[in-house]
Amino acid sequence: MARIFFFFFFFLLLVVVPSRAFVVGSGAAPRLAAIEAHDASRRELIAEVAALAGLWVPGSALAADGRVVSESELLGFSRQPARKVVITGANSGVGLAGAKLLSSAGHEVVCACRTLERAERAAAACGPTAQPAVCDLADLASVRAFAASDAARGLDTLALNAGVALNTKDTVPRRTKDGFELTIGTNHLGHFLLYRLLEEELKKRPTNRLVVTASPVHDPTTGGGKVGSPATLGDFAGLRAGPGFDMCDGGSYDPEKAYKDSKLCNMMFTAEAARRLSPSGVTANAFSPGLIPSPDGFFKYQNPVFARVFSTIATAVGVAETPAFGGSCLAFMAADASLDGVSGAWYDTEPPGKHQLLCHDPSDEARDLEKQKLLWALSDKLVGLA
Ligand SMILES: NC(=O)c1ccc[n+]([C@@H]2O[C@H](COP(=O)([O-])OP(=O)(O)OC[C@H]3O[C@@H](n4cnc5c(N)ncnc54)[C@H](OP(=O)(O)O)[C@@H]3O)[C@@H](O)[C@H]2O)c1
């Protein structure tokens, strides 16, 4: 119990206190404005240098336009034109809530889940415009079978949402069917292959979208990313070594870091996908649904007592979001007209627990162009495409 309160104390200290909300709320608006002005001029300078060096492709970087999207805007996402939206991990949490919202708004939804039974249950909960499909991201053969199926044809939005965060006390890595460490294998490599196999399908219409459910923990300088082992892919020593890697950076197994690393991979993947899709007009954006500490969902691999206590406290102090809120974020990113033409952006729930999205800068590593390209090349190799 003492450890739980210790953890919570650190959560308050490192997650809530440094948030922008706190800075603004404490009357330090001029300081924030100065920081933002400095950031903006730094970004302009970097863009100019990159343009001179011929590196800059419009819409290719993980961009920060400062846009704030309120809860009512999220819930009022566009109904028309109706889209076909493929959602991975659509049987639980954010994916299920998003699938329900999208189908009740008239969009066609493909619930791509780990098993047929879970997919059928999800589709039944969504209604007649939803269809079930099997896509086990921890099995590349299953990903290939799904990508080749009719369920994936004619899609308008591909929402790569599924994710696992394994027990932080695990000492031995669990593995996917293809031998990858399970967190990176599911959250990044399974999704990577799915995208790669559907890339040409997605490029068929310029209005199409790729949406990735990521997390601010990819950033070692903010919020939960500062607690425990920070995310970094290092020099990719693990991924370079081949499918039997324990960690991307070649370090020893750390399940908490593996999750953060997987979300960093999601961010770098989104940036590179945005660049590759740019000529076709198709967009790629990442978002976070916020902290949703569901003991039966995202926290299901953690100690159940810890999960329930953490969930109760996080909700009580107002930093938690709900699956329904996360689902509204997914539905907004997948279908809302205001995101037409917006690509390479990172929409984060900032400040935490305030039911809104803020488009702001991701971590420095997530924006590292060379690393984005290297991750892509290594991932291609690992999933058997190169
Ligand atoms: N909850 C949070 O605090 C939080 C914060 C930031 C970001 N996120 C991100 O939000 C996304 C959704 O999380 P959530 O909160 O909705 O958690 P969740 O309720 O646990 O949902 C995760 C989904 O991923 C699916 N999944 C796991 N492994 C899979 C596999 N091998 N193949 C296909 N599907 C698989 C799960 O299916 P099963 O039911 O079969 O396991 C489930 O449907 C994740 O990407 C997560 O990283 C969550």
Give descriptors for this structure:
386 residues; alpha/beta; Rossmann fold; nine-stranded mixed β-sheet; 13 helices; 9 strands; disordered N terminus; binds NADP nicotinamide-adenine-dinucleotide phosphate; chlorophyll biosynthesis; EC 1.3.1.33; NAD(P)-bd_dom_sf
Topology, element by element:
Layout lengths: L1 H15 L3 H6 L3 H24 L15 E2 L1 H5 L8 E5 L4 H12 L3 E6 L2 H11 L3 E5 L5 H8 L9 E4 L21 H21 L6 E5 L23 H5 L13 H23 L5 E5 L16 H13 L6 H13 L10 E3 L8 E3 L9 H14 L4
Parallel strand pairs: 2-3, 2-5, 3-4, 5-6, 6-7, 7-8
Antiparallel strand pairs: 1-9, 8-9
Helix pairs in contact: 5-6, 5-12, 7-8, 8-10, 10-13
Task: Summarize this entry quickly.
This protein is of the alpha/beta class and about 375 residues long. The chain is about 45% helix and about 10% strand.
Task: Explain this structure.
- The protein has one domain (59-382): Rossmann fold, CATH 3.40.50.720.
- It starts with a helix and ends with a helix.
- Strands 1-9-8-7-6-5-2-3-4 form a nine-stranded mixed β-sheet, with helices on both faces.
- It contains 13 helices and nine strands.
- Helix 5 crosses helix 12 (323-335), helix 7 (140-147) runs parallel beside helix 8 and helix 8 packs parallel to helix 10.
- Strand 5 (157-160), helix 8 (182-202) and strand 6 form a beta-alpha-beta unit.
- The chain is globular.
- The protein has helices at residues 2-16, 20-25, 29-52, 71-75, 93-104, 116-126, 140-147, 182-202, 237-241, 255-277, 304-316, 323-335, 369-382, and strands at 68-69, 84-88, 108-113, 130-134, 157-160, 209-213, 283-287, 346-348, 357-359.
- Residues 1-61 have low confidence and may be disordered.
- Bound molecules: NADP nicotinamide-adenine-dinucleotide phosphate.
- Residues 88-89, 91-95, 113-114, 118, 135-138, 161-164, 186, 213, 215, 288-289, 291-292, 294, 297-298 line the site of NADP nicotinamide-adenine-dinucleotide phosphate.
